[in-house]
Write a structure and sequence with these properties.
316 residues, two-stranded antiparallel sheet, 10 helices, 34% helix, globular
């Protein structure tokens, strides 16, 4: 396993296990397989609705002596409905309790926009089905509380997710503890080079979610094929006797970017983890770089009308 050193000195495994879209009744088995495959960086969020299952699996491994808590790197996130200073500690402690942990290694503001708190599974909507929004989302006030949580020992590192450059810069310019990480959608067809360069210049490590694209989504532009079926990628993978997924993950990590691929299949997890025994050539790196088309999968349309929020990040 390779590691990054964050700007606070903490070491973070380059590869993490993504837990998004894995149901509560399946996540224990999936995480058990990920830990067996070698993953030690676990990426979580309360909006994935599987924290308790993750917590049970981690507790089982720790209590049995198979793993020590300090050898794990656990990322969690402040959910959209908690995006106000008065809610930060409550949602942080709720996640710690659900996962039976004393601290998180990294805690991110999941989205730059906020919505009102709600009970149950469904966010609040108006009579036309549009998401109700908290338009007074204040990143700086939220950040101050996150810094307090670091000082209380509940979090070791703090960062951002799905923020744009202007939003990140404002936090950087007004922080005592600087953001250590930015998690964003990043893959072969959406490389975000300008944002990555900006983060590097500010000593902020970038971690890619959906690094293999969005499996199951096909493109008419590419003759109804998935990103993983790109012919250039296939040619490079055959040359190295590796799978296209392994080449994609190696390409990302060789750029100095972390990745949190997700799978519940043990063999695929082992395959995703087995990427540190080969390197892509400079020519191959440039060839893959040339495939960028600026195609974003995720606009968070499940929150109907959220693009009207003043902190919606994707207007750039």
């Amino acid at each position: 396993m390779e590691y990054f050193t964050l700007n606070n000195g903490l070491k973070m495994p380059v590869l993490g296990f993504g837990t998004s879209q894995i149901p509560e009744n399946e996540v224990e088995e999936a995480l058990n397989s990920a830990l067996e495959a070698g993953f030690r960086h676990i990426d979580c969020s309360p909006i994935y609705k599987n924290e308790q299952g993750i917590g049970r699996c981690l507790k089982s491994w720790i209590d049995s002596g198979k793993i020590k808590r300090e050898s794990l790197f656990i990322t969690n996130k402040l959910p959209t409905q908690g995006n106000r200073a008065s809610c930060v500690e409550k949602y942080l402690r709720n996640s710690l309790k659900a996962m039976e942990l004393d601290y998180f290694d990294l805690y991110l503001i999941h989205f730059p926009f906020g919505i009102p708190e709600f009970e149950g599974e469904k966010y609040l909507k108006d009579e036309n089905g549009f998401a109700l929004m908290d338009t007074k989302t204040d990143h700086l006030e939220i950040w101050k509380v996150l810094e307090e949580m670091v000082n209380k020992g509940l979090i070791k590192s703090i960062g951002l997710s799905n923020f744009n450059k202007q939003q990140i810069q404002r936090v950087v310019d007004n922080s005592t503890i600087r953001p250590s990480c930015l998690q964003i959608e990043l893959h072969l067809y959406f490389q975000q080079t300008d944002l990555v360069d900006f983060c590097e210049s500010n000593d902020i490590k970038v971690v890619a979610f959906s690094p293999l694209g969005s499996r199951g989504r096909k493109f008419e532009h590419f003759k109804n094929k998935e990103l993983i079926d790109d012919p250039v990628l296939s040619g490079i993978s055959k040359k190295h006797n590796k799978s296209p997924a392994q080449v994609l993950l190696r390409w990302i990590t060789q750029r100095g970017i972390g990745a949190v691929p997700k799978s519940s299949n043990l063999e695929r997890l082992k395959e995703n983890f087995d990427i540190f025994n080969f390197k892509l050539t400079n020519e191959e790196m440039e060839l893959l770089k040339s495939l960028d088309i600026g195609f974003r999968f995720f606009y968070f349309g499940h929150l109907k009308g959220i693009e009207g929020h003043p902190e919606y990040p994707f207007r750039e």
